[in-house]
Design goal:
Helix 3 packs across helix 4. Helices cover about 30% and strands about 15% of the residues. A hairpin with a 2-residue loop joins strand 1 and strand 2. By secondary structure, it is of the alpha+beta class. The model has no long low-confidence stretch (mean pLDDT about 95). Keywords: 2Fe-2S, Iron, Iron-sulfur, Metal-binding, Oxidoreductase.
Length: about 150
């Protein structure tokens, strides 16, 4: 039995320790907002937070999160400045990468509330958007920069 929290709620799962966190999140816990992309940590669609740090859940064994806090896209409130900026800047197109993009952006802003273009590009470079919305993503991050999330969210 592996115990950890997801979006602030304690979880206990009985799976093989090497099971990727992504599959535990999606199949065991029913949180399907986190997407499967490449399965090799190359595209970033599966990005979640582990103790506040953006990680690729497709290559993270669930045993690595025992006793730790995981946040998925479902744990980011709709009123979060990043989600509001995403809507204001009309970022999503197909939407597949967007949960990973938002998770990476929220982790960036938590660590660096006023990132410049270089910091944004560095933080977001591992998240592939097939629709090419990178300029709108950067604009949305600038819009959200410096705004504090309400309710204690990231």
């Amino acid at each position: 039995m592996i115990e950890f929290t997801v979006n602030g709620k304690p979880q206990r799962v009985d799976v093989a320790p090497e099971t990727p966190l992504l599959w535990v999140i999606r199949e065991q816990l029913g949180l399907t907002g986190t997407k499967f992309g490449c399965g090799k940590a190359l595209c970033g669609a599966c990005t979640v937070h582990l103790d506040g740090r953006a990680i690729r859940s497709c290559v993270t064994p669930v045993s690595a999160v025992a006793g730790k806090a995981v946040v998925t896209i479902e744990g980011i409130p709709d009123s979060h400045p990043v989600k509001e900026a995403w809507i204001a800047e009309d970022v999503p197109q197909c939407g597949w990468c967007q949960p990973g993009q938002i998770m990476a952006a929220t982790a960036l802003l938590a660590a660096n509330p006023q990132p410049d273009d270089t910091a944004i590009d560095d933080a977001m470079s591992g998240i592939i958007c097939r629709c090419g919305t990178y300029q709108r993503i950067r604009k949305a991050i600038h819009r959200a920069a410096g705004k504090r999330p309400s309710g204690g969210a990231l």
